[in-house]
């Protein structure tokens, strides 16, 4: 029996070494703060256990054994803290400070046990071999030490049950993991009571049971964590070096990790989003980023934002443990090119207005729309200006009349303005009135008029209005064109003659 327990001691001792190595390889100190302290304390206790068995220095053996008492208490404390981290709660600061103070007191009592037999009624001078410490009578504070230690463990179990029931739908770990932790804690308590009541040996079964229990905590909380799996498998390094941004979530789409680039580029803090739903992150970034799954984004609305194409993949850690990897492909440059193409296909470079292609795609919306006004505008004398004064003069007139139209229409929130031909312009105004159309026409004619022929902009304007919504948009535009041509017959010939007379007088023929 003794040989079996000795082998068990060695195996458990080796088990405490593995978590320390793996935990401190990870940079995620805040996430596993209590678990790291728990595993480190257990490992230190392991070292003390083996020192007391192999050292030949009585002073070292004696105090290595006595320090096992505060180590046991601190293992209980850090187990409680780890469970609070597991259920995503904070251990009350007052309780943590009180427990840490008790731990410090136990360390002091352990170092002074040779003078005052607090835990063991055996002095350093009375000890001949390390096993004497196991069979010696217990001191007056030993019972209190046990009460405090197991009270902390019971409190940890109660807290675990309470928060699991309270937050069963939000805790990011799994139900099976919770059951494993509960079973492990019960096994630890059972082995401790067996050690106290039935087995008399120089092997500390309390240490064996607690070391085993802490290893189970490590397994279910740390190695089953999807991020740890990514890091230890080497995929975490691949993700951190990827050009694409990434987000990792659990099966409930709660964020557990995202690319550092989201922090450096967009100021997203992990503390604000880890544990929250993925949609919460999307909402937080909506002013900076457009997320999409298909190329159906309004480039006009989103032109000042970055654009990311979202691709989602499900991945498994174990049989029933899975999460989601969301890769974000930066398509901002693609959308920049799309905007440029949009400008080329829908906007007139000369005037900055929409072009015929743009307005043609919009016309169907205005079919049978009541209170819709159409204004057809034509620039008079464009050809004669080009022929006698050069194309620069024609370009000037096109830009000038476009500027005047924008100026007059700037007070209207809803309107469509387009250059639909060389010298032709179309304006559509929803929710308007016939009197408003006349007002707009008069305003344009007024600001285009000038006594100086070189500053004058001659235009012909036709109006059409549909109050009832009985007309198709093309019919309405046709009526506006007819009205415009009636005016053009009266104004264009006069303006053309005035330009020719001006050129003859100045003898400025170009060709």
From TrEMBL:
EC class: transferase
For this UniProt record, the keywords arranged alphabetically read as follows:
Membrane, Nucleotidyltransferase, Transferase, Transmembrane, Transmembrane helix
Keyword Transmembrane listed? The answer is yes
PROSITE patterns associated with the record: GGDEF
Q: Which residues form the GGDEF domain?
A: 370-502
Instruction: Give one GO molecular function term.
Output: diguanylate cyclase activity
Look up the EC number in the record and give it.
2.7.7.65
Give a single Pfam family match.
GGDEF
The record's InterPro entries line, in alphabetical order, gives: Biofilm_reg_signaling, GGDEF_dom, HisKA_7TM, Nucleotide_cyclase, Rev_trsase/Diguanyl_cyclase
Ranges that cross the membrane: 6-25, 37-61, 67-87, 94-116, 142-164, 176-199, 205-222
Record-linked PANTHER family: BIOFILM ARCHITECTURE MAINTENANCE PROTEIN MBAA (PTHR44757:SF2), DIGUANYLATE CYCLASE DGCP (PTHR44757)
Q: What is this protein called?
A: Diguanylate cyclase
- Organism equals Paracholeplasma manati
């Amino acid at each position: 029996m003794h040989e079996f327990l000795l082998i068990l001691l060695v195996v458990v001792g080796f088990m405490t070494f593995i978590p320390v190595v793996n935990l401190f390889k990870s940079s995620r100190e805040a996430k596993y703060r209590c678990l790291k302290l728990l595993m480190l304390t257990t490992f230190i206790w392991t070292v003390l256990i083996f020192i007391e068995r192999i050292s030949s220095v009585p002073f070292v053996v004696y105090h290595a054994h006595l320090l096992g008492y505060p180590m046991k208490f601190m293992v209980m404390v850090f187990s409680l803290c780890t469970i609070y981290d597991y259920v995503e709660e904070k251990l009350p600061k007052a309780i943590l400070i009180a427990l840490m103070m008790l731990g410090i007191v136990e360390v002091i009592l352990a170092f002074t046990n040779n003078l005052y037999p607090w835990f063991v009624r055996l002095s350093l001078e009375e000890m001949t071999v390390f096993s004497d410490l196991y069979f010696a009578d217990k001191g007056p504070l030993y019972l209190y030490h046990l009460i405090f230690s197991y009270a902390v463990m019971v409190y940890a179990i109660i807290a675990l049950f309470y928060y699991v029931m309270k937050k069963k739908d939000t805790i990011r770990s799994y139900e099976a993991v919770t059951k494993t932790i509960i079973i492990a804690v019960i096994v630890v308590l059972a082995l401790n009571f067996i050690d106290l009541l039935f087995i008399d040996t120089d092997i500390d079964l309390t240490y064996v049971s607690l070391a085993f229990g802490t290893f189970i905590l490590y397994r279910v909380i740390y190695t089953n964590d999807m991020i740890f799996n990514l890091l230890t498998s080497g995929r975490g390094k691949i993700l951190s070096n990827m050009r694409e941004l990434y987000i990792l979530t659990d099966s409930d789409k709660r964020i557990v990790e995202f690319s550092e680039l989201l922090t450096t580029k967009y100021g997203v803090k992990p503390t604000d989003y880890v544990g929250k739903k993925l949609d919460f992150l999307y909402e937080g970034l909506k002013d900076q980023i457009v997320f999409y799954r298909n190329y159906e984004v309004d480039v006009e609305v989103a032109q000042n934002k970055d654009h990311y194409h979202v691709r989602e993949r499900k991945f498994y850690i174990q049989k029933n443990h899975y999460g989601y990897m969301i890769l974000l492909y930066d398509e901002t440059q693609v959308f920049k090119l799309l905007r440029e193409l949009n400008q080329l296909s829908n906007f007139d470079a000369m005037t900055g207005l929409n072009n015929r292609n743009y307005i043609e795609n919009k016309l169907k919306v205005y079919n049978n729309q009541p209170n819709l006004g159409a204004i057809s505008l034509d620039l008079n004398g464009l050809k004669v200006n080009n022929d006698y004064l050069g194309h620069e003069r024609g370009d000037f007139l096109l830009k000038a009349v476009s500027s005047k139209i924008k100026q007059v229409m700037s007070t209207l929130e809803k309107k469509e303005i387009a250059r639909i031909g060389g010298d032709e312009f179309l304006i559509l105004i929803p929710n308007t009135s016939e009197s408003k159309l006349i007002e707009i026409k008069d305003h344009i004619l007024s600001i285009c008029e000038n006594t100086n022929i070189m500053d004058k902009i001659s235009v012909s304007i036709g109006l059409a209005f549909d109050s009832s919504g009985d007309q198709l948009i093309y019919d309405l535009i046709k009526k506006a064109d007819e009205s415009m041509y009636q005016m053009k017959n009266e104004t264009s010939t006069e303006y053309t003659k005035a330009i020719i007379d001006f050129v003859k007088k100045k003898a400025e023929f170009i060709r």
